[in-house]
Amino acid sequence: MNSFIFLGGDLRMIYAAKRLNKEYKSTAYGFDGIEIPCEFPLLKTALKADCVVLPLPLTVDGENINAPYSREPVPIEKIPLFAKDNAVIFTGKECPALVKLCADHGYTLIDYFCREELQVMNAVPTAEGAIEIALREMAATLAGSRVLITGYGRIGRALAPRLKAFGAEITVCARKYEQLAWAEADGCKTVSLNTNGRLEELLPCFDIVFNTVPARIFGRERLLLLKKDCLIIDLASKTGIDDLELAKNAGVRVIWALSLPGKTAPVTAGEIIASTIHNIISEKGGTLNG
pTM here? Predict the structure, then answer.
């Protein structure tokens, strides 16, 4: 096992391939529609490798690989053109089409996105990217701003100390009591989603909301309680905003900021992916086949 093809994705996949190329033979395919910002060998025609690395997210339609810089679609069903027999397929989240393809061809499927070290390390560029959006979009400083963070998992815990360093006043809202305990331990104010009406009392006070919960936290009632010009930066994979049109009409600005690591810090995000794949290989004793 000594060759990798990174198939599709954004610039972080280029930097992940470049990082792995220091130890393994690596190339990338699906970047013919962009001039990449670093020297790296790109694949222009199909060539088979021991490992195929698919992007994060893998797909947006369930049929084609997410390849925004490719001039032509890259269907999932075309993966065998790039994979040797008994290949290992690394993916950023699975989908039914990929699971079936791997089963049919005898490929080993490994989801690198489910790795805890990737999720933890990815929270840092996500938090920094979210703060960059806030600094750009707000008319006031973060210093002195009243900030609500909904959810206190990996991203919330990366956000809070960085926002506090700017001088923001942080309140964390969560349903899980252990998350509320961590938030209090980190010096944040807290409000439980399990206490009826308490969040609603506080909502008119906030200048900015960072949502990290992939659930409908902000329905009609809560949206209308937010002050006009409140900024919501939604970092969840599934938006927590029930009605984006209602939010707009109420003067609440919503930015659904997906895949921030790949947009704001592709070098770091790519190295995180490469490091995670390297960890997986190390755990397997240096080989993934057999």
Answer: 0.89
